[in-house]
Amino acid sequence: MSSFHGLEMAKQALFAQRSALHTTGHNISNANTEGYSRQRVSFQTASPYPSPGMNRPGIPGQMGTGVETGVIERIRNKFLDLQYRAENSKSGYWEAQADSLHRLEQLMNEPSESGISHTMNQFWESLGDLAANPDNSGAKSVVAQRAEALANAFNYTAESIESQRSNLESEIDVKEEKVNSLVRQIKGINDEIKQMEPHGFLANDLYDDRDRLIDELSGIVNIKVTYTESSESSPDIADGLATIELADSHGKSFGDADNEKTVLLDGTNGEIQELKVHYSENEGEKGAVSKITVGEGDKVQAFNAENFAASGSLMGNIDSYGYLKGEGDDQVVAGGHPELHQDLDEMVGAFMKEFNSVYTDEGAQNQDFFVMEGDTDSGQAYSIKVNDDILDNPGDIVASEDGYGDMASDLADVFGESLADLDGTSVNKYFESLIGNLGVKAQEANKMNQNVDTLRSQVESRRLSVSEVSLDEEMTNMIKFQHAYNAAARSMTATDEMLDRIINNMGLVGR
Amino acid sequence: MRVTQGMISNNMLRNLGNSYSKMNTYLDQLSTGKKINLPSDDPVVAMKGINFRREVASVEQYKRNTNEVHNWMDNSDASLDKATQALQKLRDLAVQASNDTYDSEERENMMEEAKQLKEHLIDIGNTKVNGNYIFNGVNTDEKPIINDDGEVEIEHNNKKVMIEVAKGTDMQANVNPEKVFNEEMFETIDDFIERLGGDAEEPINQSIEDIDEAINNTVNARADLGARMNRLELVENRLDEQEVIAKATMSENEDVEVEKAITNLITQETMHRAALSAGSRIIQPSLLDFLR
Q1: Which strand (E) or helix (H) includes residue B278?
Q2: What is the C-alpha separation between A208 and A215, in angstroms, rounded?
Q3: Strand B128-129 and strand B169-172: pairing?
Q4: Which helix (H) or strand (E) holds A223?
Q5: Is the terminal CB of chain A with fewer CB neighbours within 10 Å at N or C?
Q6: At what angle do helices B43-98 and B202-254 cross, to 10 degrees?
Q7: Is the pLDDT of residue B186 over 80?
Q8: How far is B194 from chain A (nearest CA, A)?
Q9: B250 has a pLDDT exceeding 60
Q10: Which of B7, B50, B58 sits opposite A461 (nearest CB)?
């Protein structure tokens, strides 16, 4: 062994401890960086001396030759990442649902003194007053006004539902753009990693960046990430290049009828397929989501909202916004908002029909009490209005026919009668169950949101437990490395003193 | 399990957040006085809430209607009372006149009085309350008795004025005018006036009988009205009770029990303070405080 071997060994030790200190400093600096995984230098013993062979020296062996820095790796558990992304996509979905149902509840504003049911009660009361005072022009005016208030309440509710829908449409567009943007960014990082790894480096910070982007993406659509080697010369423990596919709720890839999987980013060749949400242009379909495509040209894969199994906040929004369901003649517009609007339309339509038939059938008036005006394609609730003739001349309202105020009485009864158009329930009961259903759905979404959020934070907690920087730990490590550094420096001094004795003090007998 | 400062502070923040949101719920409950603010808080309570509100509204509506009926009946009763008095007066006149001791001048005076009483009865028959003629069946905007300078033209509508006072219960509010202010009565009066003009006694005695009949009719109508008024009172009592019950049920359904909400709020506040205190004790010290 060479005489200066000790110096060399101490020097290597100093370098090693210094790099460890440096990494500790890096960890401390990034203690609060989101998505950062703590890094650790793994020391390895340098190749011991002597190695076996025919020309080996006859000294006792093997002797250690000090430390060398192996790799600097990040401490991260990939399996926890997998779990987190699965919970994250569910959380994204339920959060979106809970949010939009909450907004619908606030819109309907029941039970309260200012919702539709209160307005219906007031109209009913005015008819009751008219029935007791059928010749009173004041009572007739009140009936006309309350009827208008009711029509306005329906109009306003329908408008608000549609306006919330258009907000949802904007959200869907933003999320679609986000998905594509995130995929592009991940590809960018893939490219950088591809340049880094073949040199034998572990691009830890780039891995962290990529994982953070993938986490964000998983909240919007459920994805499956696989890694491929970036090159032959990359370290074995390198993460490699990420390939992102859409995944269903079991974490398995899915594709449309002709394909087994839907790839958003192919790590092996860097190809990106863009996700696009398509809206229906047909009349009466209210711009519902017709299909979701991934890719272009002959590689395009198309899904309708029902078999797009990648859950997440995008699907959460689409479910609320409305999508086309079923085939051919059975095709309907499904979804939280459109279905509520349809139910409301059904109720208003049945109410209007029965009310008008009672008003015109028994009497000789050839005018409808309620009419539809304006954009009648938007539904009955949106366009129901009181006949202008009645608003202009409320005194013309016929309140009695064969009896005293019996017409007004019959009109008031319309609210409580079983109507065939509503499958045998009355307007009152139908509205109650409309609100009840909305409440149940919202309650379920809230509960699911809470549950999934709890699960997600548990996984996040475990993730942090593995990867997060603990300042105390870093402090302790710092002391450890510092001591080791000092000790290495000391050992260098010791070796130096030994060499000094040999070089300067040996062979000088008697001087 | 390895626990880091980040995890502890995240945990603390999340728990504080939960605690705040619970306090928010109790605060909402106390401020609005309602257990639920959105249907999702309790869908069944929400549905019932809509139902009960309607119940209360309908009971209130029926109470208004009974007031209306009361109005009709009170006025009808008062009018019939006046009519009876007028007819009594006529009867007295008839009794007086049937006494031959009166001469033609006095008879003239009586005739004038009788004519006045006839006008009075016509007025009563045309009683208008709140713009409605109460003695004309359902034709409340048409005058039933037209007085054409002494000639009386009567056109009555005999339909009952039915007003709904409870679910499925209609009550007749008016008096059937044909039973009281009918042609017979006015013919009786006309005959009487005529007989006063003439000399014969017998006819005036006849008038006494005829007027008696008219009085009986009026009294009978009043008795019928009285029976209906009794029934109305019973309905009113029942409605009062129903109103209390409906409001109580509505309140039980959705109103928050204030003691419960306040207790919950105080408990939550205490826990919140404990969480704040424990959290701050834990997240503050670190190894750095103790290293040289």
Answers
A1: helix B258-283
A2: 10
A3: unpaired
A4: strand A223-228
A5: C
A6: 170
A7: yes
A8: 39
A9: yes
A10: B7
The token pair that represents A20 in the structure block = 């460890």
Instruction: Look at chain B and count its residues.
Output: 292
pLDDT in tens, B211-241: 899 999 999 999 999 999 999 999 999 999 9
- Is B284 strand, coil or helix? coil
Q: How far is CA A478 from the centre of its chain?
A: 40
The tokens describing A487, both together, are: 């000790």
Taking the Cβ of residue A416 and every Cβ of chain B, the question of whether any pair is shorter than 8 Å is answered with no
Q: What is the pLDDT of residue A55?
A: 87
- pLDDT above 90: percentage of residues in chain A: 60
Distance CA A28, CA A478 (A): 10
Residues A395, A135: Cα–Cα separation, whole Å? 9
Question: In Å, how far are A75, A452, B77, B199, B246 from B107, measured between CA atoms?
Answer: 128, 104, 32, 10, 65
- Does residue A81 sit in helix, strand or coil? helix
Is the Cα torsion angle A243, A245, A247, A252 positive or negative in sign?
Answer: negative
User: What is the DSSP-derived secondary structure letter of residue A47?
Assistant: P
Could you give the CA distance from residue A357 to residue A344 in angstroms, rounded to a whole number? 20
| Amino acid in position B21 | S
For residue A159, give the H/E element and its range: helix A137-196
Per-residue pLDDT of A328-342, as tens digits, reads 777 888 899 999 999
Half-sphere exposure of A248 (CA within 13 A, CB side): 13
- Most B-contacting residue of A113, A135, A142 (CB-CB within 10 A), to test interface: A135
Name the residue facing A472 among B47, B130, B286 (closest C-beta): B286
What is the gyration radius of the CA atoms in chain A, in angstroms? Answer: 37
Burial of residue B24, with CB atoms counted within 10 A of its CB: 0-12 exposed, 13-18 middle, 19 or more buried = exposed
Q: How many whole angstroms separate alpha carbon B192 and alpha carbon B197?
A: 9
CA-to-CA distance for B14 and A201, rounded, in angstroms? 38
8 Å CB contact between A431 and A368: no
Q: Give which of B145, B163, B162 is closest to B154, Cα–Cα.
A: B145
Residues in Cβ contact with A180 at an 8 Å cutoff, skipping those fewer than 6 apart: A272, A274, A275
Please answer yes or no on whether A404 and B159 come within 8 Å at the CB atom. yes
Give the pLDDT score at A401: 77
Residue-wise pLDDT tens digits, A79-122: 999 999 999 999 999 999 999 999 999 999 888 888 899 999 99
